[in-house]
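## retry 2 of 3
previous attempt timed out at serialization; input unchanged, resubmitting
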Amino acid sequence: MNDWKLLTDDELVKLYAEGTNEAFDVLLDRYKNKIYSYILYTVHDEDTANDLFQETFIKVIVNIQSKRYSTEGKFQAWVTRIAHNMIMDFYRQKAGENTVGDETEDGQIFNSANLSDPSIESQQIHDQTLRDVKALYKMLPQPQGEIVFMRFYQNLSFKEIAEELGISINTALGRMRYAIINMRKMAEEKNISFALN
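## retry succeeded, writing output
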C-alpha cells in the first residue's frame, strides 16, 4: 500500500497488530516528535527523555502485539498516557533511590513487601520466565538477541546500548521492536506465556 499516511491511527494499529510492520513505522513517524517533546518538556534532560521515549514505544509495541489497545480513535492520548506513566515511574524510582528511613513512625518498614523475600512460588515463576525468555532470545538473529540481553539482563538504557554497539538509539529501538515481534511469534509456536512489561 502506497498511501499509508492516509490511514487513520486505528486502521494502522489494526494492520500492525495483524503483522504489517510498515503500519507501525507510520504511527511512530506521526507521533514521535509530539511524544518526545512532551517527555523532554517534563523531565528537562535529553538522555532521560531519549530513554523514556524508547521505553514508551516499546510498551506501545508490546501492548498492540498483545491486543491490549482497543480501537477508539484516541491513539495519541493513549500513547501520551503511557509516556506519562513512564515519567511517573521514573520519578518514583528516582525518589526511592534518594530516600532512607522508616516508612512510618512506628517502624513498619520491616513489614514492607519490598524488603521481604519473594515466595517460593513467585521466585519459581520468575526463574521460569527468565529461562523461557533466555531460550527465545538465543534463537533471534544476533543483533536482536544482543539488544534483548543488554536491555533486560544487563539493565542498560537504550543510550548505553547504542553507545556500546556504535549504533543510533533509533536502530536500537528498531532491533528491539523486531526482537519482541519475533519472540512473541516463537512463544506462540511453543505455547510459552510471554510478557515484556
